[in-house]
Write a structure and sequence with these properties.
heterotrimer, A alpha+beta, B alpha+beta, C alpha+beta, A: alpha+beta, Ubiquitin-like (UB roll), DNA polymerase, domain 1, five-stranded mixed β-sheet, globular, B: Aldehyde Oxidoreductase, domain 4, Aldehyde Oxidoreductase, domain 3, Aldehyde Oxidoreductase, domain 4, 3 domains
Chain lengths: 155, 769, 254
């Protein structure tokens, strides 16, 4: 079958069986290797992307369900030759990036959150990040980056 | 010339990581690449009766299948007991038996399923105690015939004892005979898995008749050497290149998949990719060993430790691996913190039919300290002494000697313990005030103190001056996420040469380009690389000054470096840009570059007191004290950490935010060890916890805020006085939390993890009927 | 196939994936969502959407949906999937539906059929049967709550979960109550005796906890590697106590 959808605003098409995970199609067909295969259980969050405004685990998302949807990945947060998105910059500024393998997924979860909630509390941020496992940072720098970003921009 | 030392500089690899552009080992791909999967043993022990690849070879897309028959060499860290794949016998569930390379992963999996395998299964030997019983089956009947590598130290091994290390000093028996009090405890801890987000993977290919392996490893030279050992090659026939790593924590040191991958590349003539699934990762890659620690102490009336016997049984799993070295480290941890005149400490790495264990941040430190600290709290309870005062009384001071006879360099330990008081974190009475009201959680406070080693490896770094005045560092030291390379080394080079850290470029680790590096392990990367960079920078400075002296018409001694210039001392306007010096030098003395190196200095210790130790001393010793306050819910047994305090001596702050990152991350891994993580094996030797649903990794909701105090007691031979920072944060965590829980529930904690199940069970059995 | 989060993990359960899957997303009836005194929730409704319900009678269901797993799953996993996935002792929505007296509307070879959740769970369902929607009464005097216990702060299957739904009279006494437990046995179930103990009493932390002790006696917990069976039952009083305390404290969601 052929599926047609948008990735980071760009229309794409693919000939697929239908049950391939969206993650596989993004990585292998479209060269978008930001999202990672960390567990294949949907549990680690390294594969998190945004579909139709909502965070999903792309390793568990059959490509057929992506038909006609708007998919957003970490590569779409900033133009390839443009400045970083504020949330990307905030993570770097706060030392929230160590090995970085969880970061693309974390960025998409946070992006989806901040599009819904302008000034999330710490509790809400942590709840939202429950599906993103980070083994390096202990999460605090990530949380502080979001709090700092959302408090500054309101002033 | 301290420039950027102490600043929280941004990491060089950060932008690629947040843009999703960084190519990790798991992302690396090559033209015409094919895929490998492994046939792994479904049983924990037995003899291979049938292994027939005929059917599998005819699966479409299959290009090669290899088994142990193709490469029967044995290798290993110290004890050369391991074949690339199971040869005749299987010794753990998940052990590789065959490897298939095929056009696609699906084809490889289909071929794996088509390999005819029959194993005469035996009852597995599942734990060290069983393995040491008189009639236990010997996991390695040919143990005596195994090589031990070059210059093996004398150690005891035999039967299921893969290695034994001992430390003995003083008159232990007399001390026990005269003791005011004898206290005895036994502790048991499970395996903990490193669980980096990126599983183990590798791509191997043949280029110019040599093997080229791209692998997210912490130790490219170790991988090179292990491939050479298994394949019977000279090391220089292999080149290892390291892409970005998605986490290691000590788990990406030994070469588990690379040799298989390399052999398949040689057989097929194509680049071959292999990658573990998360299930394979949890089920087969080497976790922190499960262990049992028995402690027995002779104690004086005021709480002085007079003598101590310790027995540590480390579960090495099916192959000795790194665990034989870790047994030595147990003796170091047990003897580093407190004054114990009489010591009889034994650590044994024991073979079992379980996946081989290995290094994970802190090695055996987390459970040695858990055992020692619970034991001390036990002593405090018996003598009705304040637990903090007991630490202060027994802690070794500067100038005193550890159990191994090495001297304590500083009083960071006293400083760290007293910091707990300065923060008003220790309850004055030693008892935690309980919450008011009838229905309230039980509250407790606990602390843990320990010294931790830095373990730097030999390393080489070349520093070159680029013609535009920027600096390049060529080194095979690996950035595993800590920032030691992406920030620390650049800051040190910047400070040494008077440039901005952003003007210091690092080459990706490549065993062809750089000299030997022993691996990014042991909290030693900033330490070793920093020292090597300083060594190289000295050479670069000399060359710079040689040329600049002529350009500025002064003597070389009158020059210094600042702001990207060579400047005349005392005349800030007399200066020349580094770029100009570099280009001038090209046609006078030649391009400016210098090779630096580092190897750790010998530490004086009492050699007579140790037997069979593979590591006998600690370098750049730091002190850490952690304090935890907990609440225990009586209805569910759940433990909530309400306050967590860390005081850690780092020697000298190179990058404050990076240090904070290590403390945040290490403490949370320690919380996982204390409360959540347990890699279990069932009665058949099969993994119980081979998924992230089962193996509970801490989430953002499991991370209490941490109050951090960083102390600076400089190490005289560390770069700018810095000590290793990465491992100490995990080492005392389980000890501190266990101490707090024991304080809250009024019962000692002798096992990890402290699950709600174990707590509720303890509370119920303590309740009057 | 609804959201696919169960089906896509087939290999992890040692199951072969089926040869053909039919995407249900295009069937409008399955997307119905009507919050009323008789609330109809289509099978394709996600946990995230269900979490937005505000009626006190539906608080248990809303909370079960809101606290299940983590956002990436809640955004995709559906009510239909939660009901049809098997074996799935830990399903969050099921005990909440049980306690809420929900009925399932089904479509099969023999046409439409409506049945109670208990009957739905009692035996394996025909493979070709579709869950169309769940219909949940939300009468004025009904209050409800849900608690799930995890080892971590969240993001995992519950070790045990409890849903409580009660009809309260003007004098504050319970007229009827239903206690359902999840993840304790191999399927979620009602604890009828536990519900009965609440009748004629006010709903407080203490009365709820007492009901929990009855529920713990009523059930036969399963043994598996995730948690010991005795523990799953042992925490039921505390979980119910929390629901009672929250409701008595005036919270709309417990």
């Amino acid at each position: 079958m052929r599926v047609a959808f948008r990735v980071n605003g760009v229309p794409v098409e693919a000939d697929v069986g239908g049950m391939e995970p969206l993650l596989e199609i993004l990585r292998d067909r479209f060269g978008l290797t930001g999202a990672k295969l960390g567990c294949g259980e949907g549990r680690c969050g390294a594969c998190s992307v945004i579909v139709d405004g909502r965070t999903i685990a792309s390793c568990l998302y059959p490509i057929v369900l992506a038909d006609n949807q708007a998919v957003r990945t970490v590569e779409g947060l900033a133009a390839a030759d443009g400045p970083l998105d504020p949330i990307q910059d905030a993570l770097l500024e706060h030392g929230a990036v160590q090995c970085g393998a969880c970061i693309p997924g974390v960025l998409m979860t946070l992006t989806a959150l901040l599009e819904r909630v302008a000034q999330p509390t710490e509790e809400v941020i942590r709840q939202e990040l429950t599906g993103n496992i980070c083994r390096c940072t202990g999460y605090h720098a990530i949380v502080d980056a979001v709090l700092d970003l959302t408090t500054t921009t309101s002033e | 010339m301290t420039g950027k030392i102490g600043e929280s500089v941004r990491r060089a690899d950060g932008e690629d990581k947040v843009r999703g552009r960084a190519i990790y080992g798991m992302d690396h791909a090559e033209t015409n690449m094919i895929h490998a999967r492994l046939l792994r043993s479904p049983v924990a022990a037995g003899r291979i009766v049938v292994l027939d690849i005929t059917r599998a070879m005819s699966i479409p897309g299959v290009r090669a299948i290899i088994t142990a028959a193709d490469i029967p060499c044995r290798a290993g860290v110290i004890v050369k007991d391991q074949c690339l794949m199971a040869l005749e016998y299987v010794r753990y569930a998940g052990e590789p038996i065959a490897a298939v390379a095929a056009g696609t992963e699906a084809q490889a999996l289909a071929a794996v399923a088509a390999i005819d395998l029959e194993i005469e299964a035996w009852d597995p030997v599942l734990d060290p105690t069983t393995a040491l019983a008189p009639n236990a089956r010997v996991v390695h009947p040919d143990w005596a015939s195994y090589d031990l590598g070059a210059d093996p130290p004398v150690g005891t091994r035999g039967g299921n004892v893969a290695w034994e290390s001992r430390l003995e000093r003083g008159d232990v028996s007399a001390a026990f005979a005269d003791a005011h009090l004898v206290v005895q405890d036994e502790f048991t801890v499970p395996r903990q898995h490193q669980s980096p987000i990126e599983p183990h993977c590798a791509v191997a290919s043949i280029t110019g008749g040599r093997y080229v392996v791209h692998t997210p490893t912490q130790a490219p030279f170790l991988v090179r050497d292990r491939i050479a050992e298994f394949l019977g090659l000279r090391a220089s026939q292999i080149r290892v290149v390291v892409p970005t790593i998605g986490g290691g924590f000590g788990g990406k040191v030994e070469a588990t998949l690379e040799p298989i991958c390399a052999l398949l590349a040689q057989r097929t003539g194509r680049p071959v990719r292999i990658a573990n699934s998360r299930r394979e990762e949890l089920a087969t890659t080497a976790p922190r060993e499960g262990a049992m620690v028995r402690l027995r102490s002779a104690v004086g009336p005021d709480g002085d430790l007079l003598a101590q016997e310790a027995e540590c049984l480390l579960d090495a799993g099916a192959y000795a691996g790194e665990t034989v070295v870790i047994a030595s480290v147990a003796l170091l941890y047990l003897g580093a913190t407190y004054r114990i005149p009489g010591v009889r400490h034994v650590a044994r790495a024991v073979y079992t039919n379980t996946p081989p264990t290995g290094g994970y941040r802190g090695l055996c430190g987390p459970y040695c300290v858990f055992a020692m600290e619970q034991h001390l709290d036990h002593i405090a309870r018996e003598l009705e002494l304040d637990r903090l005062e007991l630490r202060l009384r027994n802690a070794l001071r500067a100038g005193e000697r550890m159990a191994n006879g090495q001297e304590i360099d500083d009083d960071g330990m006293v400083d760290a313990i007293q910091q707990v008081r300065r923060l008003n974190a220790w309850p004055a009475s030693g008892r935690t005030p309980q919450a008011p009201g009838d229905r309230r959680p039980m509250r407790g406070t606990g602390l843990a103190a320990t010294r931790c080693p830095t373990h730097p490896e030999p390393t080489q770094a070349t520093v070159k001056l680029n013609e535009d005045g920027t600096v390049g560092i060529i080194s095979a030291a690996v950035e595993i996420g800590t920032g030691a390379v992406a920030m620390g080394a650049r800051q040190i080079a910047a400070a040494e040469l008077g440039v901005q850290p952003s003007d210091v470029m690092m080459l990706p680790p490549d065993t062809d380009a750089a000299g030997y590096d022993g691996g990014s392990t042991g909290s030693g990367t900033t330490f070793a690389l920093g020292n090597a960079v300083r060594d190289a920078a000295e050479g670069v400075r000399e060359q710079l000054f040689e040329t600049a002296a002529e350009m500025l018409e002064v003597a070389a001694e009158d020059l210094r470096l600042a702001d990207g210039h060579v400047v005349v001392v005392g005349s800030p306007d007399s200066r020349v840009a580094l770029a100009d010096v570099a280009t001038t030098a090209l046609w006078t003395t030649g391009p400016i570059a210098s090779a630096g190196r580092y190897c750790p200095p010998p530490i004086v210790f009492d050699e007579a007191c140790v037997t069979g130790t593979l590591i006998s001393t600690m370098w750049a010793v730091s002190s850490s004290v952690h304090l935890a306050e907990v609440e225990v819910d009586e209805g569910t047994g759940k433990v909530t950490i309400t306050r967590y305090v860390v005081t850690q001596d780092v020697g000298r702050i190179i990058n404050a935010r990076a240090i904070e990152g290590q403390i945040h991350g290490g403490v949370l891994q320690g919380i996982g060890y204390a409360l959540l993580e347990e890699l279990r094996i069932d009665d058949f030797g099969l993994p119980l916890d081979a998924s992230l649903e089962r193996y509970r990794l801490p989430t953002a909701l499991d991370a209490p805020r941490i109050e951090i105090t960083v102390l600076e007691h400089p190490c005289p031979y560390g770069p700018y006085g810095a000590k290793g920072v990465g491992e100490p944060p995990i080492v005392p965590v389980a000890a501190a939390i266990a101490a707090a829980v024991a304080d809250a529930i009024g019962q000692p904690v002798r096992r990890l993890p402290i699950t709600p199940f174990s707590v509720l069970e303890t509370l119920r059995s303590a309740r009057p009927a | 196939m609804a959201g696919g989060t169960w089906i896509m993990r087939a290999s992890l359960r040692g199951e072969r994936r089926k040869a053909v899957h039919v995407v249900l997303d295009g069937i409008d009836e399955l997307h119905e969502f009507q919050a009323d005194t008789l609330t109809r929730i289509g099978a394709m409704t996600t946990h995230a959407r269900i979490a937005q319900l505000t009626e006190p009678a539906l608080a248990a269901l809303a909370r079960a949906a809101a606290t299940s797993a983590f956002p990436a799953v809640r955004n995709v996993a559906t009510l239909g999937g939660n009901l049809r996935a098997t074996p799935f002792p830990e399903a969050d929505l099921v005990p909440a539906l049980l306690a809420s007296e929900a009925r399932v509307e089904l479509a099969g070879r023999r046409g439409a059929l409506t049945t109670g959740i208990e009957e739905f769970l009692a035996a394996p369902r025909p493979a070709e049967e579709l869950v169309v929607s769940a219909v949940i009464p939300a009468p004025a005097r009904r209050i409800s709550g849900y608690q799930r216990l995890t080892v971590r702060g969240g993001g995992e299957y519950p070790v045990a979960s409890v849903a409580l739904s009660a009809d309260v009279r003007d004098d504050g006494l319970v007229e009827a109550a239903r206690v359902a437990i999840g993840s304790v046995e191999s399927t979620a179930r009602l604890c009828l005796e536990a519900g009965r103990t609440l009748v004629g009493r006010p709903l407080t932390a203490d009365t709820a906890e007492a009901a929990g002790r009855v529920a713990a006696q009523e059930c036969t917990p399963r043994e598996d590697a995730g948690a010991p069976g005795w523990y799953r039952a042992a925490v039921l009083p505390e979980l119910l106590r929390r629901i009672g305390a929250s409701i008595a404290g005036g919270a709309t969601q417990a």
